[in-house]
């Protein structure tokens, strides 16, 4: 690997992490604005125009807050928990294809930090590690309510990871690849996977809510039962890491949904723009199109949070194990039958 490529990748990694953090910060502002709009309130409007400096004010407040620790024998793990949660939230952004190639300074620059052939496996692997951050944080807090919240979160995330993985298998059978870049490339124009795998999309969307601990699946932070849940004993930026990790996960899951089912950076007329205006402009519009799709999903996350009440825990487990997992398996079987029938028809010429 030459030095130019290393510099390019380093710049892309820095930009991706910075954009992820920026989106996580301003998702907190958007959450308040959407909640205010749905509840006929004003929302944040004091820190800067339209309250746009509110995330910065919140960050400064978290930095300035007093650090306190519970009387725990696991002090090291108490610090490691939020670090794992935040790290895994940022690591998943490394394999997201944000656009096609840019041709700059006589060379092609790929808008992806790491173009790996098994990007989907990487994402599921990192997400499974994220469970440890929550579980370790709840265990090291030396608080029974924190521990109960961590156990809830871990069992919820593990349960819905199974349904999420099974829902993606049907999509992989159709696309024949684990690379997010290739999946995006196969959806040129409006040839989006959501039209071929609507059930897979619905299951993946529901599981994404559970994976990010968002309402109506926020049982791990149920204030009426568990105070603040697994981060009850955390303060200052350690608690901020847990909160930022939730919004970063929401941003990344929205990006994955857009790439797997809604064409990623592809948009109608992209080939025409490439032919008439060049690839660079088409790629800029592709990045804009991808972020419009991501923001649409983020808005949907927030809309659901402020309109639907949370499930009971037994309802949560019933939905995951007895409805979503069987539906995912049925979807795999149906997809296999359709693909097999198409192959047989192509082989015999009818």
Short description:
By secondary structure, this protein is mainly alpha-helical.
The residue fraction in helices comes out at 55-70%
- Helix count from the secondary structure assignment: 12
> How do the strands of the widest beta sheet line up side by side?
1-2
**How many strands?**
2
Shape: globular
Largest sheet, in brief, is: 2 strands, antiparallel
Kindly, what is the distance between the CA atoms of the first and last residues, rounded to a whole number of angstroms? 49 Å
What's the Cα radius of gyration? Answer: 21 Å
How big a fraction of the residues is strand?
under 5%
Structural class: mainly alpha
Low-pLDDT parts are none
Order of helices and strands: HHHEEHHHHHHHHH
What is the arithmetic mean of pLDDT? Answer: 85
Overview of this protein structure:
There is one protein chain. With 350 residues, the protein is mostly helical. It has a two-stranded antiparallel ribbon. Helix 1 crosses helix 9, helix 2 packs antiparallel against helix 9 and helix 9 crosses helix 11. It is globular, with a radius of gyration of 21 Å. It starts with a helix and ends with a helix. The model has no long low-confidence stretch (mean pLDDT 85).
Secondary-structure blueprint of this entry?
Layout lengths: L2 H36 L15 H11 L10 H17 L9 E4 L2 E4 L8 H22 L3 H32 L4 H6 L12 H14 L11 H4 L9 H26 L8 H8 L1 H27 L7 H36 L2
Antiparallel strand pairs: 1-2
Helix pairs in contact: 1-9, 1-11, 2-9, 3-4, 3-9, 4-5, 5-7, 5-12, 7-9, 7-12, 9-11, 10-11
């Amino acid at each position: 690997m030459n030095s130019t490529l290393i510099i390019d990748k380093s710049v892309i990694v820095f930009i991706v992490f910075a954009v992820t953090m920026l989106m996580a910060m301003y998702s907190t502002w958007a959450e308040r604005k959407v909640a205010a709009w749905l509840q006929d309130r004003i929302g944040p409007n004091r820190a800067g125009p339209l309250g746009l400096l509110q995330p910065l004010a919140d960050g400064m407040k978290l930095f300035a807050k007093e650090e306190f620790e519970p009387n725990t024998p696991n002090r090291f793990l108490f610090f490691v928990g939020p670090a794992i949660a935040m790290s895994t939230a940022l690591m998943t952004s490394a394999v997201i294809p944000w656009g096609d190639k840019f041709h700059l300074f006589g060379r092609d620059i790929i808008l992806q930090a790491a173009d790996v052939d098994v990007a989907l496996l990487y994402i599921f692997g990192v997400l499974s590690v994220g469970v440890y951050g929550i579980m370790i944080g709840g265990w090291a807090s030396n608080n029974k309510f924190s521990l109960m919240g961590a156990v809830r979160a871990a069992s919820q995330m593990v349960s819905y990871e199974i349904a999420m993985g099974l829902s993606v298998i049907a999509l992989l059978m159709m696309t024949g690849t684990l690379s997010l870049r290739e999946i995006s490339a196969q959806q040129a124009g409006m040839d989006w996977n959501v039209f071929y795998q609507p059930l897979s999309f619905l299951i993946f969307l529901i599981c994404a809510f559970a994976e990010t601990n968002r309402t109506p699946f926020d049982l791990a932070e149920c204030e009426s039962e568990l105070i603040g849940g697994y981060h009850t004993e955390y303060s200052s930026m350690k608690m901020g890491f847990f909160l930022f990790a939730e919004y970063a996960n929401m941003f990344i899951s929205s990006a994955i949904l857009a790439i797997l089912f809604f064409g990623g950076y592809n948009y109608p007329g992209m080939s025409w723009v490439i032919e008439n205006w060049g690839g660079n402009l088409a790629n800029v519009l592709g990045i804009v199109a991808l972020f419009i799709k991501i923001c649409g999903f983020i808005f949907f996350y927030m809309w659901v949070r402020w309109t639907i009440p949370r499930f009971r825990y037994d309802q949560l487990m019933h939905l995951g194990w007895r409805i979503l997992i069987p539906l995912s398996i049925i979807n795999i079987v149906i997809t296999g039958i359709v693909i097999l029938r198409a192959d047989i028809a192509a082989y015999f010429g009818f």
